[in-house]
Amino acid sequence: MTRALVLGAGIGGLSAAARLAHAGYQVQVHERLPRPGGRSNLIERGGFRIDTGPSILLMRDIVEGTFADVGADPADYVSIRRLDPAYRVFFADGTRMDAKVDRAELRAELEHIEPGAGARFDDFAEIGDQLYRGAREHFVERNFRSMREMFGVSNLPQFVSLRVYEPMHKLVGRHFRDPRLRQLFTFNAMYIGMNPFTAPAIYALLPYNDTVEGVHFADGGMYGVVEGLVRLCEDLGVEIVCDHPATGVLQRDGRAAGLSFADGDLEADLTLVNADWPWAQQRLLDREPRHPLPGKRLRYGPSAMNFYWAVQGDVGNLEAHNIMFGDDYEGNFRDVFAGKVHERPSYYVHVPTLADPSLAPDGHHIVYVLVPHSNSDAPIDWAHERDRVREFVLHDLEAKGVTLRERIQFEEVIDPPRWAEQFSLARGATFGLSHSVSQVGYLRPHNKDPHLRDLYYVGSSTHPGAGVPMVMLSARLVTERIVDEHPPARRGAPARA
Which end of the chain, N or C, is less packed with Cβ atoms under 10 Å? Predict the structure, then answer.
């Protein structure tokens, strides 16, 4: 039986492990951390169950398809439902709105802010639909094995139809005049670590995805998805070994022959690395991370300042997902991407216990705050910045009627340096490498190593990119490539229920 070693039990590594096992490989996963999940991890303390990483679940069909594609019933492993509203938005002038599921209700919310915006939303959503389906068909769900496959004559018209030449904020600005609605329909670029003012218009598919395809929630939080993947892997015969960091990729005769650990080497027919791609190049292969195009510099995404609060009592007027816009939206993102501190940042607040009360003891809530921030390469006094940002958020929430300060029972903080150290992320870039036009598709690090045979990659810094659904697609694409290039000795069987 063909043996595959997977390094990293993040969502990408687990998804790929399940697919490989179903295809007939003998699969073993090794994880550096004490539990699976990668940056989608868990803080458990005092009856609280707090997700550390991604919290907004999009593209439900891709998530559930990961289970269905290996012969399993998704409902046996994950329970996912759509949230209404998708999120509540607090604007700097004191107004607020809900992104409702019902189209008529959403249009009414938009009309309240800008007369005529409801009807224009329909036009905007139609463009978003075209971008979403076109991007998935022609770019996101395809392996690109050569420059010609991506930029060939047959694909060139797609670059025009998908608006890669136009900034996202200009496309949004043609539909909505009120600056609040321009914020509402561009902030989503931060899902993949992009600046809304420089992101290409193709990423207008993100607000379409939020408002039309929907924001979903998995019972048990995002770690419920991780646990479902772990059970799926176990049902398929995958062995998962945690608390076992690799020290390098075992190299022999121009190929990856397995992984090296402090307690010895493990050999395999193929090796799949789910660790952060630039980190893996430096730490496991002793290479400088390089852009696929010679002479082109890699661009790293930003990071985040995360606060995780266990709170006694209610959370006021918050919903499960909340967006808090500051009064200098453009300047905020300019500073984030310039490696500077912004004094009054926009931020995101997640209260998962409003969707799943079982995540905390009775009468308590979890409040998860994410403040987009420069990555850990920035010359910032991080200890001071943690205290400053914490005070800003608590004060700003109080101004919005949410008083938490005296009711926080415990807190955890993950700042950019801790993202880098604890989760082995180059520069603490929580979203991986940037998703600029020069780093997508074939121009993103490939899922096959260009120098060592039998070495493959999965994760947010490889094609197609960051976010739970994209990483799951990354797992599908790399598995398709492995099966094509390195067929297993025999085929597998469907998962056991």
Answer: C
